[in-house]
Structures
1.
Amino acid sequence: MRRDPGVQMGAEMIFDIRQTKTGFDMEWQARVGDQDMVFIRAPFSRDCFLAEIQAKDYSQRLVFDPSDLSFGNKLKDRLSFRLYEDEKYIGHLVGNTRKERKGLFAAYPYYEYQYREALLSGYEVGFGRKGLYLCVYEGQEQIAVVEKKLSVTDFKDEYICYLLESRQYRKVIPFVIYYDTIQYGDVMERAVHSKKKDALNTIQKDLIAKFDRSFIPRVLEQDGIRPGSLKEEHKGCNNE
């Protein structure tokens, strides 16, 4: 039974994505404060991955099927996750590597994301126990920072999404589901009261530079802090 995806997103610039179900089927909920915004469900399949993203006014599907050669038979084509909105193909997501200068550790991984005519990039930047972030750029402009909660209970990951412009949320939600699936997709993992901590220490200077320390404070200044949100738990984290 499909759940009511709840309210549309208005002028909000901060929202949470929490995984609510693990095991064979996986589910996530995007919420603004205490209001449901988008519901995501990925039924178990041995052949492919399909995440159904359902909002009040639109629907998306994030699909990974390595046997589908209709977009090409290169390795990059076969590793790509494809995004559809209201049944129309609108883009893809795939891991890639970038090198902007010579030297040891100069190359670094990133996520390539084509969304309609826009080309986005995602950079995972970690500061050990102080924070783990996915920095999202559209061209040279940073449009979002996604903060991952380091403490994980029962394999259910949680994220806080910070946006300067609320209209970007349709792009960001599939990105987070893709990132969570390939990095922390504990398929068929079940647990009761289990806990773990995720930590990553980024060493590449070019990659660390993708994290703009002023971005989250700017979003918080515009949006404010409301009780009951994940962002309240992390408002003291400055990664210094």
2.
Amino acid sequence: MTNKISDMMDHILDDTVDIQILDIASSEKIKEATMKKIYPKKNRRLKAGKLSGTAACAAVMIAVLSISTIALGLSVFVSRQAELRASLGVEGKNIPEYVEYSEAGEPAAGGLTAAAVSSMHDAQFQWYYILVQPVSYADAKALTWMVYLPDADVGTEAAYVGGFEQAYDEETHSLLLKVCFPYEALAWGSGAPVAAELSGGRLSESEGEGLNDYSPSLSAQLALTPSEREANVTAITFDNGLAFTNDNGAGGIIYGAEISASGVTWFYTFEDADGIFTALANYESLTPEELTYYREAQAAWINAFEQAIADAQITLADGSIFGELTPNRAVFECGIYAATATWGSPLEVSEIESISVCGRTYRP
């Protein structure tokens, strides 16, 4: 069995990814406000009786309208799914990490429907493309979207709040959200759907508390299915490592890379990496001058690493070139940075021929 570089490291949540886990106080406040919107006080109970002819006709019309709404929603779901498939370039490719779903969702009381169109995962995260409809253009531009997930560890809920990437279609009044979750939030590998709740609302400053109040105006339930399998990964170790230096002549080393369908993860370190990271992790104990020093030191090293891999590229079996391998997120553990570049169009891992970096070419 081939050992992966990442097997030597415990994956931890990357706090630089474009999601934000709200604190408990804020999450509870938001949840309470959401529940008031979703579950209003019950109306008084009426006595049972026969429907009049007019009422029966109205009931039939409502049923017909509901069926038409569901049919329209399904049509939009299928068309946006095909549109996304073409946009990502996955049509005809063997990419098991990309999964499409068939459930278009049921309309909520207010008529809003939310459903996962598809998902993609790598070794640490799974992100979903969630279709929300109908949504007006004004709401699509103005509302902040949140997803609540049950938190099995503490028996409460974690709230994930935008900026989600989004794409609005004015013709169908539908909004496509890209929402990313760490595996810890999804009970990854179980394959069992996770009940979630999506809401759209406005954020406003609380008086005296320094927190944002969230006033949801739209909401819907949806199910998110975690992946049941690990991501396919091609691990490439650079013999003796690749050396690089910063502007002061201090040295760093790149150990290797792991390539998956969704991106490449680089493993590297540099002089005093532990000291810099530890200082920044305990930033509250630093003076403003010390904080500035360590931030600039870390930024200088990241810049030096990115310059070292600026010309890196992946060659596929058909001769096509995959570039733009500069990371957009990173985690640090055991003295090593695991920095990941995620690309928009997935590739077939089995088609990877080689990776070239620092003037050298390496093959799986």
